[in-house]
Structures are given as structure tokens and as C-alpha cells.
Amino acid sequence: MDEVLTCRDLQVRYGSQQILRGVSFSVAPGEILGIVGQSGSGKSTLLRALMGLLEPTASVTGEVFVAGRRWTGLGEKELRPLRGTEMGLIFQDAGASFCPIRTVGAQILESVAAHRREGREEVRRQALDLFQKLRFQDGQRVWNSYPFQLSGGMNQRLAIAAAMLLHPKVLLADEPTSALDVMGQKQVMEELAQLRKACGSAVILVTHDLRLAAALAENILVLREGAVVEYGPADRVLQAPQAEYTRAMLAAVPRIRRD
Q1: For residue range 211-245, what is the model confidence (pLDDT) as tens digits?
Q2: 215/79 Cα distance (integer angstroms)
Q3: Which end of the chain has fewer CB atoms < 10 Å from its terminal CB, N or C?
């Protein structure tokens, strides 16, 4: 099966500080890839590099291809119409990405209008249909709400729904459950899996939580200090890790003992 995203020898440097060190991987359509590592390992930098969202002071080498098209080297004007439709990004704090003084519906309409021509009623119908699939209670109320009227978990789930309305080939999720309680984490995990199944989008899930990666991902990539130390099928990485760093991360996962 052809890869929908290919990353080859990606390196990112800020001055004398190297953040990513020759990262390479690929993602097939519909695949969930889990990228794990401790804080400071370069996970979020990797996602921003894939999207072309790094600061101008960053030096980037290597290649990124999305659906056969080379992204590295494209200018902002060329990337803008591709972001969202070819590749979407869910930030760690999704609530901060919504404007607090505009309704959810108005912001979704604006997001869709930036990429395709559709009537407001048609977009609203699609959004409410997606809300229903994601088991949002009273989707019309959510559509008319302001972000501050909704919980953090709801804002995170709405960010996923808004991204998926654009039907991206690849969805990047940066620590999407880190600020949520256990029930919120469970809902987000279920929705990522359901949307992958319904829309066929590949998902790159960045997390420091190996349990989350184990629950969702077919393949896992482990980053340490900007370098790949392990990459392969989730079962193999989690049950027979080759790298000492991966074994240490697994040993640090808390276990509940039941007597």
C-alpha cells in the first residue's frame, strides 16, 4: 500500500542546537502511528516541522511527502491551502485555538469556507451529523455555544471534529488527552479511532503516555533527544523492545495491583 506520508532524514536546528536528528518514518492510509518520548524529546517540533509551522529561525533539512507531494521547500502561500485538507493538526490545548467571543458554529463555518465553497446550511448539516456520530449530546446547542461555555474535554473533542470536517489525508494530534480527566481521555481515544475508521484518515498521535499509544496505534516510534531509538509494530515495541530507553519508559508506567 502506498504511503500517505513519508518523512526522510528530517533534521531541525536552531543555531547550534539540534532538535531533530535524522527522523525517518512513513504512514499508510488509515494507519495510526504513535510517537512517544519524554518531554523535550522533539515530539511537538516534529509535528510542526511536518506542517511547515516552525519559526523562520529554524534550519530544516530532509524531506516530507504528503500524498506524493513534496512539502519541504514549499512557501507559506503554497502550504496555506494544503493545511487542513491534506494534513490537519490538533494542538495540545485545543481550547486556546478557539476564539472565546465567537460561537463554535461561526468558527467552523469560517474554517470550512477557507478551503471549499459550500453553503452555510450544508456545512452546519455536516457538522451536526458528525457531532451525532461522535455522540455529542444536543449538537445544536454545541453549535450555538461559545468555547468558554464548554468543558476542556468538549473543546478538545470539537477540535477533532472541526479538523475532520475538512477530510484531511493525515491528522496530527499533539498530546490530545494530556489535560483531560480519565473519562475525557476515553472519549477522545474512541473518537480518534472512530473517525479514522469512518474517514480513512491516517493519524499521527504524539503522546508521552505509552498506554494510550498501545491502545490506539498499529505502529510506534520512540524519540529520544530528537533521534529515533525504536520504530516498528506496536506489539513488538511494547512486548519486546530493543532499546534500553524504551524498556525504561515501559518500566515507568504505573501498574495497579489488585490483591
Answers
A1: 778 888 999 999 999 999 999 999 999 899 999 99
A2: 32
A3: C
Q: Domains of the chain (ranges plus CATH)?
A: 5-102+170-251 (3.40.50.300)
| Residue 88, C-alpha cell as written in the block | 490537519
Q: What whole-number distance in Å separates Cα of residue 98 and Cα of residue 94?
A: 7
Q: Please state, in angstroms and rounded to a whole number, the distance separating the CA atoms of residues 64 and 50.
A: 7
User: CA–CA separation, 158 vs 41, rounded Å?
Assistant: 28
> Under a CB-based contact definition with an 8 Å cutoff, are residues 72 and 48 in contact?
no
Phi, psi of 15 (to 5 degrees): 60, -125
pLDDT for position 196: 74
The pLDDT tens digits for 184-208 are 677 777 777 777 777 778 999 998 8
The secondary structure of the chain as a DSSP string is ---SEEEEEEEEEETTEEEEEEEEEEE-TT-EEEEE--TTSSHHHHHHHHHT-S-TT-EEEEEEEETTEE-TT--HHHHTTTBTTTEEEE-SSGGGGS-TTS-HHHHHHHHHHTT----HHHHHHHHHHHHHHTT-SSHHHHHH--GGGS-HHHHHHHHHHHHHTT--SEEEEESTTTTS-HHHHHHHHHHHHHHHHHH--EEEEEES-HHHHHHH-SEEEEEETTEEEEEEEHHHHHHS--SHHHHHHHHTS------
- Give the whole-number percent of the chain exceeding pLDDT 70: 93
**Mean pLDDT throughout 97-105?**
89
Please, what's the largest Cα pairwise distance for the chain? 61
